[in-house]
Specification:
Length: about 500
């Protein structure tokens, strides 16, 4: 693909993703303006509100300053009229990351991911600047540098991640390929260590997200009664209930981040001096948001067993990584230039230690990022602290995953030991072109020698079968038919019995 075309497409992607998010925010707000506010709607405020929600979805803190008329009508004190809202609806972040990774992967396949990255950076910065400068809102304000830097950094980081992963897997004829060439010059299994860490770390993170999503689903089902009661207590009409539900769906990934902290053990806070963890829950006053009715109020020490789930995820990732390292060792040439046979060498400890630490580091960094993105402030006073603590979550997840991965990666075992799940008989290599990695494979040199021995044995038997026919032809010299060449016997195939009789 032409480099100029890559630049244009990358810039177009940055514009499209911003426009798509703005449209998804503006559509329900427009319905509210038309049917909810009616003739009293201030259409000049529609765009600033849309832009403010867009910025909040890109992790930009919003400073709220309620007018005196509003505080007086609601009975809010002057001290509580100004506060910060920084708890982001992570559904917007998920969409931005997905779109950015897709754009970066396409630029990498075209062989011009650096140009695409620069274009995405510049266009994202321009779009963020335009949105911020055109959305002056006296009630909800954002810092200029945060409103420009954070959305740009989020989208650019997603583009960079997609480009690097794709370039590593498919090649880019550039920086990533040169780095891979340097790694492949080292002895096995070091060249595959970065890929093994990335793959196993992705397995752990995916497992944690999946377990957390299941925990949220179970909590929503078990707390259905409380959720319905909160909806009824709000006295909302159909339009208000629908808009409130859409807003809660935007925060569904945020709830998954809270559940990840809960599964890991440290839990999360729903206001200052409150804790929700597997050991118990100290809620205090909970905001009347229906989805918060799903928060479990459990006092049972047995629930602490859920921390074994990250350990199990680390163990499974360690099993996958151990298998990959063994495959890399067996497929590498030995000192004599021949491929290493079954049980010819033990696992070196150095790569296994690095992979174990790498898996734990990837899991800890991902958990810290999710915890940081799913925490913030939602109001004044004690509501200024909501969500998990990133440091505690990273420490807990890293330690649990490290324990699970170390069990499978650092346990002593030689290549001759059977791998987990390798209870079946080894397939014959000449019948199975893709044998399992940890099964016995017949060395190619030994196979060639076996074939040469069978060929020599066939030639010897063929000569012995022809000698009686030659003597009978010499004795019958007067017969013309005896002068003709005697027919050759059929060669003996490997595995058959005695040679056929001479004609």
């Amino acid at each position: 693909m032409n480099r100029l075309l890559v630049v244009l497409l990358s810039g177009f992607d940055a514009c499209v993703q911003a426009a798509a998010i703005l449209a998804s925010i503006a559509a329900p707000l427009t319905v509210l303006w038309v049917f909810g506010l009616g003739g009293e709607a201030d259409w000049a405020a529609l765009w600033p509100v849309t832009a403010t929600i867009w910025q909040l979805g890109h992790l930009v803190p919003v400073d709220i300053a309620l007018p005196e008329a509003v505080t007086a009508s609601l009975g809010i004190s002057a001290a509580a009229s100004q506060f910060v809202v920084s708890l982001a609806p992570l559904a917007i972040v998920v969409f931005v990351v997905f779109f950015g990774v897709r754009s970066g992967a396409r630029a990498a396949r075209a062989g011009a991911w650096i140009s695409g990255l620069v274009a995405a950076l510049l266009v994202a910065a321009a779009v963020s600047t335009a949105i911020h400068l055109s959305s002056v809102n006296p009630v909800a304000q954002t810092q200029t540098w945060q409103a420009i830097l954070l959305p740009t950094a989020l989208y650019t980081a997603a583009v960079l991640a997609g480009a690097i992963v794709t370039a590593w897997l498919e090649g880019d004829d550039g920086v990533v390929d040169r780095l891979r060439d340097q790694l492949e010059g080292r002895s096995a299994p070091w060249p595959v260590v970065p890929g093994v860490i990335a793959r196993s770390g992705a397995i752990v993170v995916s497992a944690l997200v999946g377990v957390s999503a299941i925990a949220v689903a179970v909590a929503l089902v078990s707390g259905t009664g409380r959720i319905i009661a909160l909806y009824q207590g709000g006295n909302l009409d159909i339009l208000g209930a629908a808009l409130l539900t859409l807003g809660q769906l935007a925060y569904l990934p945020t709830l998954i981040g809270w559940a990840m902290a809960w599964v890991a053990g440290p839990g999360f806070a729903l206001g200052e001096a409150s804790t929700i963890s597997p050991v118990g829950a100290d809620l205090g006053v909970v905001p009347a948001v229906p989805v918060l009715g799903a928060i479990p109020d459990i006092q049972n020490m047995w629930m602490l067993l859920v921390v074994l789930l990250p350990v199990a995820a680390g163990a499974f990732a360690g099993w996958v990584a151990r298998s990959d390292l063994v495959v890399a060792l067996r497929s590498s040439p030995g000192p004599s230039g021949r491929r290493r046979g079954h049980g010819s060498i033990g696992d070196p400890m150095g790569p296994r230690v690095v992979v174990t630490a790498g898996i734990a580091a990837v899991a800890a960094i991902a958990a810290a990022a999710v915890a940081a993105a799913s925490s913030g402030a939602i109001g004044p006073g004690r509501l200024a602290q909501v969500g998990p603590a990133p440091g505690l979550v990273a420490l807990a997840v890293g330690g649990e995953v490290l324990l699970g991965a170390a069990i499978l990666l650092l346990s002593p075992r030689r290549l001759s030991d059977p791998a987990p799940g390798a209870g079946r008989a080894a397939p014959q290599p000449w019948r199975d072109p893709l044998p399992a990695p940890l099964w016995t494979v017949l060395d190619e040199t030994e196979l060639d020698e076996t074939k040469r021995d069978e060929t020599k044995r066939d030639d010897t038997e063929l000569v012995g079968a022809q000698s009686p026919a030659s003597e009978e032809s010499a004795e019958a010299g007067t017969d013309e038919s005896a002068n003709e060449t005697a027919p050759l016997p059929r060669p003996e195939s490997p595995g058959e019995g005695s040679p056929p009789p001479a004609p």
